């Protein structure tokens, strides 16, 4: 069985469309929306293809119309794209976002999977680095062969003995310096991390067509072209 892991699409449908893999099951690890502006086709793709999903902090913010606090560049970008979501998402999209679970446990191909966007301690928001001891603590009562996460936008494979913690990296807004769409494949218990280039110019143009303000388009383009660096001017 071939299992596709994707996370942190962030409304970048050009990046999502570049992933041309066959799969028997697809696990989506949260953050379909915000930062980018092409939310509706990303949600439609997930609804049509994902075997299981969990809710990311940005899915929650859009579903619940959460007001952003603070003025950091990423918060400004999230708030502006959330406002665009308001215009482009249907009631059915919002219902889907509202009902995404915080965690999911399932068995595939004889192996136990536990899905959460961030960590079991704080399912949507905790940023936990690649620290075996800290992950061991968070996973004390979780029995799984694979714990699949997103949120940091950086690929990770942590071997904790009985359990492997896998972060496939971000489809639509990587922060590991590699400006491509990231994902992972699990087949016969073996994990492979992959990236695929996509048309960043087209993704940026889509933001312009959606009406995102020019300073935030420049910020997004810098983030996408550098694989996650903030420009010196912000
Ligand atoms: Fe994210």
TrEMBL record:
One of its GO terms (cellular component) is cytoplasm. GO terms for molecular function: phosphatase activity. Pfam families: Metallophos_2. InterPro entries: Ap4A_hydrolase (IPR050126), Calcineurin-like_PHP_lpxH (IPR024654), Metallo-depent_PP-like (IPR029052), Pesterase_MJ0912 (IPR011152). Residues 1-187 form the Calcineurin-like phosphoesterase domain. It comes from the Bacteria. Coiled coil: none annotated. Belongs to the metallophosphoesterase superfamily. YfcE family. PANTHER family: BLL5683 PROTEIN, METALLOPHOSPHOESTERASE. This is Phosphodiesterase, MJ0936 family. It comes from Planctopirus limnophila (strain ATCC 43296 / DSM 3776 / IFAM 1008 / Mu 290) (Planctomyces limnophilus).
